[in-house]
Amino acid sequence: MAECGEIGMMLGAFEDSELEPNEMQEVAFHLARCESCAGILADYSTLGRDLRSIAAEPSLAGFSSAVIARVDRLPQPVLTRIARYLRRQADSVGSGFAWGGAAAAIALVTIILMTPYAEQFANRGPHSTTSIAQAEHEAAMAANQVAEATASEPTMADNDSHADISRLESENHSVAVWSEPRRDTTVIWLPDQP
What is the C-alpha to C-alpha distance for residues 123 and 131, in angstroms, rounded to an integer? Predict the structure, then answer.
């Protein structure tokens, strides 16, 4: 068991709850049995209350803003200023980077998905005009051959296997359609496809 001399040195720390748990327990146990140490502890408590009531608390109004203003006036290294500026910009932009990243990802996926179609469209570009012109030329040549053949032969009887072509129909330049209305016959000509 501790003596009053040892306990007396720990009373101030006991009052402020600064002792280890086992020391707090030892002092509390001693104070329960020793009236002189309990009186000294009561004096410490009274003295602490009196000192706190005498000292005026300083006004803290505007203290934090004054400290921040003074810190801002201190010279700072260039790297710190750059980092602080970038941090402010990132905070202000915030979700803009996220939206930009999402838009870039969507654009990338679109490009990946549309590339085969774009290549097909590009291959049609200037070559498609020549292929259409070539198909028109071939259709016209075929129509001329058929017209020459029908002009040189007289019209056959209904049971004849030769057709009498009366008109050439086509809205698509790469396809030729001939109709023979008397026999309900239609011929569709397609050019050779690569």
Answer: 12
